[in-house]
Structures are given as structure tokens and as C-alpha cells.
């Protein structure tokens, strides 16, 4: 009896509702009943069911009053997920914003102008392109000028020069080494290109142009056959150093800015010195570092083989002819960091 009265009182508002609302309510209730009739232990809403509720929520204002299988928050969550899918699809299938990409023809033309005119910057190249009728911004030209391939012919000419004149070329450079008591020390060295021989190696706390001039006179005596000395634009290589280089009969050759590859022989020696010695020891002071470097220079020139010298040493180490049963002995170098192997007498 109580249920019947409850049903009658609940039906009273339906008498004052429009026919459209009643039809929509019937459709919504039937849709939920169809979900319940599916042969599953737990009713699940499929993609078409979710699409149906999304359309109903947009066309009928009283859709919340007819829900009994799900909550309004669930439909709102479906709506938001649909928007995310839509915008993801739209981002994948629409063109990228901004200016349109330049053609391969224009890109090759920019590379050609940059290669044929090394002193031109992006503004001048952009001006030439505007005169040719290309609609491109200066910023785009600047970005592609930076990506332009470097001139391989220029590098090849420098490599050929170093290879053909290695007997008369030497190089000098600095590198820093931290110590326990003296702080940062500067190591100065001069290396010959022909056999990778270290002509001089010194240590100083405050190197100056006057201090560098004296090692140059010691590294290049009058009977030396070198003609060119390669070094970078370090401030320590001032006018006194240039005068000292000219005094010993050498021609100064400065490498380009930010181009350590042009002084590759010296840079490789610095890398070898760090990997073989300085990465494994902690110099106490200037005297200790000088002793370590002198031992390493002897090991480097007399014992250590080099790929650039066809597995030979700068001092041209002799090859031992091994006989049957000959014993190999090991001789430590630089306190046991490295060893030299010879045949026992």
C-alpha cells in the first residue's frame, strides 16, 4: 500500500510536464533498461551508450532526474575525455603553427651563399634573397646559416699543409693542473709535429710573456730545423712572445678563434697527459708536478707507442727479435702507473 501511494504522488508532477519531456524521459529510461538486460554480471556502458548520454546532456535540461545506473559526474567525466580525444586528434592532423617551412631549393641556396661568401652574415644573405623575390624572414635565414655545412676544402688544405710540413712545424700551448698547496699551476709545453717529440715542458704559477720567451730559446736552438710555430690566441702569448718567436727564426701561425682542432697535435698531447698521469695522481706542489711531468715526458718519448707514428715511439724504440723461450720482463714507469716490456738478455 505504501509503495502504491508513493508511486501515485511521484506521478503527480508528470501531469504538469510537457509531452517533449515525457518522451525524452521514456527514451532515457528505456536506454538504461537495455543496459541492464545485457547478459553480464555488471552492466557496462559501451561507446555508443556514452555518446547517447553526451547528446542527451546537451539537448535536455532535466536529464539528471532520470538517472539510476550512473551519476552526473560520470557523464561529465566522459564529456571531458571526449574533448581530450578530439583535441589530440586535431593536433595530430592539423598543420603546425607559425611560418611555413622553406623549400629545399631555398635551403640549398642559403648554404651556397654562406659557402661562397664566408664573410657574409644572415642580414646580407637575407637581403640578397629579398632581391631574388623570396619571402623569408631574417631569423629563418640566420637559423639555416648556422646549420650550413662547413667548408671541407678549407679543412683539407690545412690538413694537407700540416701533413706536408710536419718536419718543420712545432706547436705550443698551456694547460692547468690543480695542486694541494699551490692552487692552480700552469703547464707550458712545446711539441714537434714530425715525431711528436716534447721540446720543452715547464711549470709556473703565474706565467707571463717574459717567462715564455726563455723556454722558447731553449726549445729552438740555432741548429733546429723548424720554421713554423702554431699557437692560439691566449693573452699570455703577447708581443714579447711574438718577438721571441721571430728571434729564434720561426714564423708565428695563430689558429682561428674557437678552433682547437687546428692545433690538434698539442691538444692530443694534453689529453694523453691527463689520461695517463694527471687523472691518477694529486700533485702536492710545483716541484712535485715538475718531477711527474719530467718522468712522463721520458716515458712518452722513449716507451709509449703512438697510433700517429705507426705504433712507434717519438725516440724510435728498437724492435726486439724474440727467440724461442725468451722471457719478457716488466719495467715500471711513473711509479707503476705504466710499464715497459722488454726481452730478458
Topology:
Blueprint: H1 2-11, H2 19-36, H3 47-59, H4 72-93, H5 104-116, H6 122-131, H7 138-146, H8 152-164, E1 169-178, E2 184-192, E3 198-204, H9 209-219, E4 228-231, H10 239-247, E5 251-254, H11 264-278, H12 286-302, E6 328-333, E7 338-343
Parallel strand pairs: 1-4, 4-5
Antiparallel strand pairs: 1-2, 2-3, 6-7
What does this structure look like?
- The chain has 345 residues and is α/β, with parallel strands linked by helices.
- It has 3 domains: 17-93, no CATH class; 104-149; 164-309, 2-Layer Sandwich (Nucleotidyltransferase, domain 5).
- 46% of the residues lie in helices and 13% in strands.
- It is built from 12 helices and 7 strands.
- The protein has helices at 2-11, 19-36, 47-59, 72-93, 104-116, 122-131, 138-146, 152-164, 209-219, 239-247, 264-278, 286-302; strands at residues 169-178, 184-192, 198-204, 228-231, 251-254, 328-333, 338-343.
- It has a 5-stranded mixed beta sheet with strand order 3-2-1-4-5, with helices on both faces. The chain has a two-stranded antiparallel sheet with strand order 6-7.
- A hairpin with a 5-residue loop joins strand 1 (169-178) and strand 2.
- Helix 9 packs parallel to helix 10 (239-247).
- The chain is elongated and about 115 Å long.
- The model has no long low-confidence stretch (mean pLDDT 83).
Amino acid at each position: 500500500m505504501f509503495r502504491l501511494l508513493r508511486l501515485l504522488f511521484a506521478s503527480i508532477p508528470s501531469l504538469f510536464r510537457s509531452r517533449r519531456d515525457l518522451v525524452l524521459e521514456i527514451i532515457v529510461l528505456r536506454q538504461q533498461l537495455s543496459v541492464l538486460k545485457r547478459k553480464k554480471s555488471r552492466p557496462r556502458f559501451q561507446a555508443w551508450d556514452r555518446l547517447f548520454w553526451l547528446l542527451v546532456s546537451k539537448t535536455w535540461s532535466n536529464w539528471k532526474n532520470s538517472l539510476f545506473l550512473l551519476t552526473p559526474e560520470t557523464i561529465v567525466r566522459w564529456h571531458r575525455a571526449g574533448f581530450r580525444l578530439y583535441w589530440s586528434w586535431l593536433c595530430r592532423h592539423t598543420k603546425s603553427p607559425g611560418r611555413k617551412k622553406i623549400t629545399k631549393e631555398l635551403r640549398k641556396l642559403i648554404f651556397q651563399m654562406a659557402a661562397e661568401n664566408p664573410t657574409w652574415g644572415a642580414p646580407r644573405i637575407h637581403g640578397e634573397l629579398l632581391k631574388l623575390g623570396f619571402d623569408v624572414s631574417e631569423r629563418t635565414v640566420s637559423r639555416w646559416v648556422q646549420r650550413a655545412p662547413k667548408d671541407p676544402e678549407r679543412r683539407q688544405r690545412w690538413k694537407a699543409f700540416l701533413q706536408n710540413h710536419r718536419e718543420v712545424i712545432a706547436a705550443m700551448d698551456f694547460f692547468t693542473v690543480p695542486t694541494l698547496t699551490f692552487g692552480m699551476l700552469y703547464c707550458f709545453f712545446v711539441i714537434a709535429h714530425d715525431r711528436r717529440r716534447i721540446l720543452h715542458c715547464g711549470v709556473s704559477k703565474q706565467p707571463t710573456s717574459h717567462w715564455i720567451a726563455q723556454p722558447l730559446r731553449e726549445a729552438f736552438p740555432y741548429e733546429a730545423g723548424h720554421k713554423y710555430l702554431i699557437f692560439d690566441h691566449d693573452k699570455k702569448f703577447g708581443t714579447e712572445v711574438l718577438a721571441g718567436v721571430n728571434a729564434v727564426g720561426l714564423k708565428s701561425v695563430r689558429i682561428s678563434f674557437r678552433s682547437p682542432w687546428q692545433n690538434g697535435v698539442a691538444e692530443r698531447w694534453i689529453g694523453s697527459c691527463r689520461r695517463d698521469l694527471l687523472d691518477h695522481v694529486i700533485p702536492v706542489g710545483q716541484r712535485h708536478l715538475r718531477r711527474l711531468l719530467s718522468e712522463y715526458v721520458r716515458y712518452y718519448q722513449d716507451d709509449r707507442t703512438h697510433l700517429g707514428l705507426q705504433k712507434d715511439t717519438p725516440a724510435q724504440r728498437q724492435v726486439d727479435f724474440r727467440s724461442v723461450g725468451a722471457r719478457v720482463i716488466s719495467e715500471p714507469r711513473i711509479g707503476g702507473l705504466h710499464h715497459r716490456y722488454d726481452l730478458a738478455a
